[in-house]
Amino acid sequence: MKKIVTLVALALAIIACKEATVDTKEVKEEVKAPAKPAVALYTFDGGSVGANNLNLFAQGDTYKGESKQLVDAFYVIKHPKGILLWDTGLPEGLVGQDPYTTPDGAFTISRKDSIINQLASIGVTKEDVDYIAFSHIHFDHTGAANHFAASKWLIQKPEYAYATGEDIKENGFYAPDSFSALTNVVGLAGDHDVFGDGSVIIKSMPGHTPGHQVLFIDLPEHGPTLLSGDMYHFQENRDGKIIPVFNHDLEQSKTAIADFEAFAKAKKATVYIQHEPADFAKMPVAPKALN
């Protein structure tokens, strides 16, 4: 009798173990990865840049005698927790004017529309913009910045130090008056998770300027996406890892390129070169969005 009781107890224990295993599997199956935040990326035309002396975008004579038409895109990122404006395009004084060629003949620039009109196409006003950030503060990225004085300005500390220093006054690539109204400064010391959930991250990539940065966006459908800033200006720059002669720091630029490519590979991110016409053409232009 004792033997039978022992066998029954053993059988019951085995059944209990099997049931526990099934329950555990069922629990595991119910655990799902959290849904990505509903982030949307809007692309806008911030003007046109005719690079009449393409050799400025290299060291040595790589592009000697060549020219290229570039775009000047800017972007709005809508997130459930707020709105980020990334770059603002060329100076708005160009709107309604003939294309302007710089005195040295290096660039011919133009802009068709103001940023306020363009944002209205997606139902956004200047008051709606919670954050403004530039890939860097060259004049072709800060042209409409002063509309957003109430927005929080996300800028790397070395970039802000240069922006408020003396050297900037002698450098024609900058127009400090174009962002002089921005006083709500949030100084960054490296990478910054804008909304705190990993979906929109500013990546510090100095070299082109003292505090150059790029933008990572993890879109729900399109997936990991990288906006290059001026890490590269066109595809040939990226293919050859070519650094413009006017970059602030050559060695920092080399390091930034390596870091950028490693990050893009690790994230399996789609890279959009902001000045590259072919990449601009791949993007749905506002009011359509990349989701």
TrEMBL record:
It holds the Pfam family Lactamase_B. Keywords: Hydrolase, Metal-binding, Signal, Zinc. Residues 1-20 form the signal peptide. It comes from the Bacteria. Residues 71-275 form the Metallo-beta-lactamase domain. PROSITE patterns: PROKAR_LIPOPROTEIN. Coiled coil: none annotated. The keyword Cell division does not apply. The keyword Repeat does not apply. Belongs to the metallo-beta-lactamase superfamily. This is N-acyl homoserine lactonase family protein.
